[in-house]
Design brief:
The complex is a heterodimer.
Chain A: H1 2-15, E1 19-23, E2 34-41, E3 48-53, E4 64-65, E5 70-74, E6 80-82, E7 84-87, E8 90-92, E9 101-109, E10 112-120, E11 126-133, E12 143-150, E13 158-165, E14 168-169, E15 174-177, E16 185-189, E17 200-208, H2 210-221, E18 244-258
Parallel strand pairs in A: 2-18
Antiparallel strand pairs in A: 2-3, 3-4, 3-8, 5-6, 5-9, 7-8, 9-10, 11-12, 12-16, 13-14, 13-15, 13-17, 17-18
Chain B: H1 8-13, H2 17-25, H3 28-45, H4 51-66, H5 73-78, H6 82-98, E1 105-114, E2 125-128, E3 135-137, E4 143-149, E5 151-158, E6 165-171, E7 175-176, E8 179-181, H7 186-189, H8 195-198, H9 200-203, E9 209-212, H10 214-219, H11 229-233, E10 239-241, E11 249-251, E12 259-263, E13 266-267, E14 272-273, E15 278-279, E16 286-292, E17 306-312, E18 321-327, E19 330-340, E20 344-353, H12 355-359, H13 365-368, E21 370-384, E22 389-404, E23 408-424, E24 429-446, E25 452-469, E26 475-495, E27 504-505, E28 509-524, E29 528-542, E30 545-550, E31 556-562, E32 567-585, E33 588-599, E34 601-604, E35 615-618, E36 626-639, E37 644-661, E38 677-693, E39 698-713, E40 722-723, E41 730-739, E42 744-753, E43 757-758, E44 763-767, E45 770-774, E46 781-782, E47 786-796, E48 800-804, E49 811-815, E50 819-827, E51 837-842, E52 850-856, E53 861-869
Parallel strand pairs in B: 1-7, 1-8, 12-17
Antiparallel strand pairs in B: 1-4, 2-3, 2-5, 5-6, 9-16, 10-11, 12-13, 14-15, 16-17, 18-19, 18-53, 19-20, 20-21, 21-22, 22-23, 23-24, 24-25, 25-26, 26-27, 26-28, 28-29, 29-32, 30-31, 32-33, 33-36, 34-35, 36-37, 37-38, 38-39, 39-40, 39-41, 41-42, 42-47, 43-46, 44-45, 47-50, 48-49, 50-53, 51-52
Helix pairs in contact in B: 3-4
Classes of the chains: A mainly beta, B mainly beta.
Chain lengths: ~260, ~850
């Protein structure tokens, strides 16, 4: 839905005399919050929790890292892994195997205990990566990626796609549930990103749990930057204990494609 | 008034001496008028379906009266239906109050029409020269009825813009008289029009009403030169634009979905085209527009904030008339003609935008395959079956279409149809029966034959019965009933097998909304006028369906399956209203009103802008009806012989069960959308000032609104009151029109308002490498102030030609059959970049910092259009 509305806008505005400019708006500074991003990936050794402090809107994007936290993750087998602070504010757990199942997180930091649980769903294979001309959906001679995969009929699946265009991650949140494609083999167009001949796209298909999708979705819808967005607000977090952010376990399959 | 009558508790429950005595004194005429009235009521309200029972009742009733016994039996008969019971009591109480004993009185009644085109004149005044303060106005079908003691009178028929007619009348029997008011040479005679018409704003009982003369709309400059009632309405106090260029509006701190918009009685669910920049109302096809900002009469109901009652033209019943216009954005054509002269007529009016036709010229295939247009078609026909019966059939069809080639299509639109039957039962009892159909749907399709389409529909079947009972020159009673059957199809996906998409059909929901009402407009002496009424309504959610119940966090806690037609939930609402006018002197009056309203349908809009995919949700086991109470006080004063009109109104209103959404709610195609809702309360208050200059070459108005609108939700802003999105502290409109010459008119509007409440971030953080905004409260900030100046010039072609008169040998002015005019406009004349939205995102030059980016939509939009009629 969002994608379609997104497409309507430029065409409409083209017809009008819209103009954009950067303006100065005075904003209050919220008290800095602890921001947790906890990710368990299905590849061995690529798991991390980052701890930063939120900043003022007009600060640049170098956030204060929070060091010295004590972070543990319990894996589906019940084994507790202590994460090591490999760089300031970034804690990694190289011993976590990243198998499907339930994970729980415990963070002791600055007199606070932050906890969460998440589930890594069974993997879904990204069978093919394709591309085709955008047609009416974008400028001519651009291409839209299509992810080919078979959605398992038995489970309710939630997907997020992360795309790296020529090595740089694309902004935005590509989120889908299998509500309308349940059990089907699909070639899902990954709107709205456009690619040109010569581009390399590395696509990660993440299978995530419902709470993770809800977090990303409410984050994306709540930014207040879109013409059609809901009233802005903070996303629905799955963390307990007074922090913002989320904890999510991703079942990942990836493919790289060159547009030629 | 009756000197004494039985106190209400006794009226039905036990024999009542006073009434009984009274009954013995009543004369033949009273019995006759009563029986006529009540018989009509029973027969036509409850209809022949339940007829035998009530017919029986009627007979019992009649015989009771004839035998001078008491109104006792009907109670027993009616008991099984509380609604009908209520109705009966209300009708009788009002009758008792209004004193229908009419010894030696006679009634003059009929219709008033425009001599030029045969259109009914709504709100025309019928007054009596010899009895100042006595009179009536025509109803929406041009019908009037006035009951007076026998005598010799001069009856005056008048209406703004028409030459009044004075007819000496010997009233010694009932008289039926149809009047045609001429507007031929009236412009010159305006000064003669009696003051009774011009001071209507102070003499009428109504307050909190915004009216626009359709002719006024023509001369006010608007975006792209597309004349628009909804946009012009926004220049009046208490009515606020939903945003730059938008036809959406907010009334007295309410939301957009709290406005009931009726086109020939049919609710229009999405009144905008092209994302709100144009309304669906083609002003060429409209006759009358009235907006009730509160305390709407009892015949209206179902929305909290306002009622906008729009009536289509009936069509010229005198001669064929064609009019049209060619503009930058669209062209319009209207044809009207008699079906049978003076008996029936029709009108067809169409409008289509044609921006996309230019796209076809493009060499680029994608562009040339792009569709982007909307059209409206209004059609109406009416026919007089006889002196007492008249039929109207009207319809509206409008659609927006957007798409490119087979890849993508998105279209939406309304269809409404109204079949009406006017029947004059007697000189005093006017009836209108309406059957109304109303439909709104959208459809999104992609991928052509191998793709899928998504759609949603809301469909109403509506039956409405209204009576106007002109009891006497002091009381005008309205009563009636309404039943609407709603079908909501919140969404479905219809996909080709090869598309990889499954068909989905979110279950339809059904509701039955019904109401009965009664109201009286009463004059007490020369100074006091009252309007009071009661509307009793019910909303019943019907099966079939798999009905979920949610807890306060939006989680499903119960599921139950209901059979076809089974009642899932049901709500009653008793909405009284009362308003009073006290005339201080001939030039000023005080008015006050208090009213309650219920709203059973709610618009789930996830966006700030209002979109075609917004979903209407009925009240249900999870969603309670919204309830609103309003009190208003007003002072009305006319100055300089009614050359200026001034009013000051203030209001306070409270709302409960208002709806908002959880952050990031998914609204479209969501089976559990009710779980995404939050329920809270609201309050709004304000002061509205209005000064209008009505006479002379220079006309226009000044309007100012000072207001506040707040909401409170348990889950938002720590459950404290916060400013609603539509909260706007100051709002000023200035409208000026000046006739440079007989043919040239210039006009200008200036609007200024302080910014709406808006949510801005108060911090940021990083998620997966992307900077995202952190919010501390909803609507804690304000948009920048807005102001804009628009200009317009209208140049009429010569409306006469010079012809040699062979008798005098001199050239004389002869009216031309073909008339035309040019309109030029400039929207946002000083090119201010007004903020439409402000967003906070990474700078394009330096992604490491966040910038506030303001989007301004329109800067200097010129327009030109050509209008013609013959």
């Amino acid at each position: 839905m969002k994608r379609i509305q997104f497409l309507l806008l430029p065409l409409l505005l083209l017809a009008l005399t819209a103009c954009e400019k950067v303006v100065e708006i005075d904003l209050n500074d919220a008290d800095p919050q602890i921001v947790v991003e906890g990710v368990i990936r299905s590849e061995m050794g690529d798991n991390y929790v980052t701890l930063i402090r939120s900043a003022s809107i007009y600060d640049d994007n170098t956030f204060d890292n929070i060091t010295g936290a004590n972070i543990t993750v319990v894996d589906p087998a019940g084994v507790t892994h202590l994460l090591a602070e490999t760089t300031p504010g970034r804690y990694t757990g190289s011993s976590i195997a990243g198998l499907p199942g339930s994970y729980s997180l415990n963070i002791d930091v600055e007199d606070k205990t932050i906890t969460s649980t998440t589930t890594m769903p069974q993997p879904v294979a990204l069978d093919t990566m394709l591309y085709r001309e955008s047609g009416g959906f974008g400028p001519s001679s651009t291409f839209v990626l299509e992810a080919g995969f078979s959605d398992p009929v038995a489970a309710v699946n939630y997907y997020r796609f992360r795309i790296f265009k020529n090595g740089v991650m694309e902004e935005g949140w590509l989120l889908y549930d299998d509500g309308i494609i349940n059990g089907n083999a699909v070639e899902l167009p990954l709107f709205p990103n456009q690619y040109e001949i010569g581009d390399t796209a590395h696509v990660e298909m993440l299978t995530i749990d419902a709470a993770s999708l809800k977090y990303y979705e409410s984050l994306a819808n709540g930014q207040g930057n879109g013409f059609f967005d809901a009233a802005p607000g903070n996303p629905e977090s799955n963390l307990e204990g007074g922090a913002i952010g989320y904890f999510s376990a991703w079942s990942v399959d990836a493919k790289t494609i060159i547009i030629e | 008034m009756y000197p004494n009558y039985c106190p209400r508790p006794h009226l039905f429950n036990q024999p009542c001496g006073i009434l009984n005595r009274h009954a013995q004194n009543i004369n033949q005429q009273y019995v006759a008028s009563f029986v006529e009235f009540f018989g009509a009521l029973v027969e036509y309200i409850f209809g022949s379906a339940t007829g035998s029972k009530y017919l029986q009742l009627w007979i019992v009733y009649q015989s009771n009266i004839e035998h001078n016994s008491v109104l006792l039996h009907p109670q027993i008969e009616m008991q099984n239906s509380s609604m009908k019971h209520f109705f009966l009591i209300a009708a009788l109480s009002l009758l008792a109050l209004s004193g229908w004993a009419q010894n030696g009185k006679f009634t003059i009644s009929g219709t008033i029409r425009d001599a030029d085109n045969g259109e009914d004149v709504i709100g025309a005044n019928v007054t009596v020269k010899e009895l100042p303060g006595t009179g009536t106005v025509t109803n929406v079908y041009g019908f009037y009825s006035l009951t007076l003691p026998a005598g010799d009178y001069t009856i005056v028929y008048s209406f703004i813009g028409f030459a009044p007619q004075e007819i000496p009348t010997k009233l010694d029997k009932d008289i039926t008289r149809a009047i045609e008011l001429g507007s031929g040479a009236i412009q010159l005679k305006e000064a003669v029009i009696s003051a009774v018409v011009e001071d209507e704003n102070i003499t009428s009982n109504e307050m909190s009403v915004a009216k626009i003369d359709i002719k006024e709309i023509e001369s006010i400059p608007v975006l792209f030169g597309e004349k628009d009632v909804l946009k012009t309405m926004q220049l009046l106090p208490g009515v606020k634009s939903a945003g730059e260029g938008s036809s959406g509006f907010f009334v007295r701190g309410g939301t957009a979905d709290q406005n009931l918009i009726l086109l020939d009685e049919a609710p229009v669910y999405n009144a905008s085209h092209l994302l709100g920049f144009f309304s669906v109302f083609n002003s060429d096809a409209l006759k009358d527009v009235k907006l009730y900002k509160g305390g709407a009469p009892a015949e209206y109901g179902g929305r909290l904030s306002s009622v906008m009652d729009i009536k289509m033209k009936d069509g010229n019943s005198k001669k064929l008339a064609v009019s049209g216009g060619i503009g930058l954005i669209s062209s319009k054509l209207t044809i009207e003609a008699p079906l049978v002269k003076d008996k029936g007529s029709f009108i067809i009016s169409g409008r289509r935008t044609y921006g996309d036709l230019f796209l076809k010229l493009s060499a680029d295939e994608t562009t040339s395959n792009t569709q982007l247009y909307f059209y409206d078609l209004n059609a109406k026909a009416n026919y007089r079956l006889g002196e007492k019966d008249r039929l109207f059939l009207s319809g509206y069809f409008g659609r927006d279409k957007f798409g490119f080639g087979d890849d993508f299509g998105f279209d939406w639109g309304n269809v409404t149809g109204t079949l009406r039957w006017n029947h004059i039962f007697s000189q005093k009892l006017f009836s209108n029966t309406s059957v109304i159909y109303s439909n709104y749907d959208y459809k999104i399709s992609f991928g052509g034959d191998e793709g899928a389409s998504i759609g949603s529909t809301i469909r109403d079947y509506n039956f409405k019965q209204d009576f106007d009972y002109f009891a006497n020159d002091k009381n005008k009673i309205k009563f009636g009933a309404q039943v609407i059957h709603h079908t909501f199809d919140p969404g479905s996906i219809d996909a080709a097998e090869a598309s990889g998409i499954n068909d989905i059909d979110i279950q339809d929901t059904y509701g039955l909304e019904s109401a009965v009402y009664i109201s009286n407009e009463q004059k007490i002496g020369a100074k006091i006028g009252l309007n009071y009424g009661l509307r009793a309504s019910n909303f019943t959610q019907l099966g079939p369906g798999d009905i979920r119940t949610y807890d306060t966090d939006g989680n499903v806690i119960d599921r139950q399956t209901y059979a076809d037609g089974e009642v899932v939930s049901s709500y009653n609402g008793l909405a009284p209203r009362f308003s009073m006018k006290y005339q201080l002197n001939t030039v000023s009056s005080l008015k006050a009103s208090v009213s309650r309203a219920y709203q059973y349908l709610h618009l789930v809009s996830n966006s700030n802008s209002g979109t075609p995919t917004d979903v209407w949700l009925p009240s249900s086991n999870n969603v309670k009806p919204e309830v609103g109470d309003q009190v208003a006080l007003g002072y009305f004063r006319n100055l300089k012989d009614n050359g200026y009109e001034f009013s000051a109104e203030s209001y306070y209103k409270t709302m409960s069960n208002t709806i908002d959404y959880r952050t990031g709610a998914q609204v479209t195609l969501n089976e559990e959308v009710e779980g995404e809702l939050l329920f809270g309360e609201g309050r709004a208050y304000g002061l509205e000032l209005f000064l209008k200059k009505r006479k002379g070459n220079f006309t226009g108005w000044l309007s100012y609104t000072l207001s506040r609108s707040e909401r409170k939700f348990d889950d938002l802003n720590n459950a404290s009151w916060y400013a609603a999105r539509q909260d706007r502290t100051h709002d000023v409109s200035v409208v000026a029109m000046y006739s440079l010459s007989e043919r040239t008119k210039v006009s200008g509007t200036w609007v200024y308002y302080t910014g709406n409440a808006v949510t801005f971030p108060s911090g940021k953080y990083l998620i997966d490498g992307q900077a995202v905004n952190y919010f501390t409260e909803r609507n804690g900030y304000r948009m920048p102030d807005y102001h804009r100046l628009d200009f317009g010039v209208t140049v009429d072609g010569k409306n006469y030609k010079l012809k040699l008169n062979p008798e005098t040998g001199e050239k004389e002015q002869m009216p031309r059959r073909y008339n035309s005019s040019w309109s030029f406009g400039l929207y946002n004349a000083y090119g201010r970049e007004n903020a439409y939205s402000i967003s906070f995102a990474a700078s394009e030059e330096n992604p490491n910092i966040t910038e506030a980016t303001q989007l301004a939509l329109f800067k200097w939009v010129p327009s030109v259009s050509y209008q013609f009629n013959f």
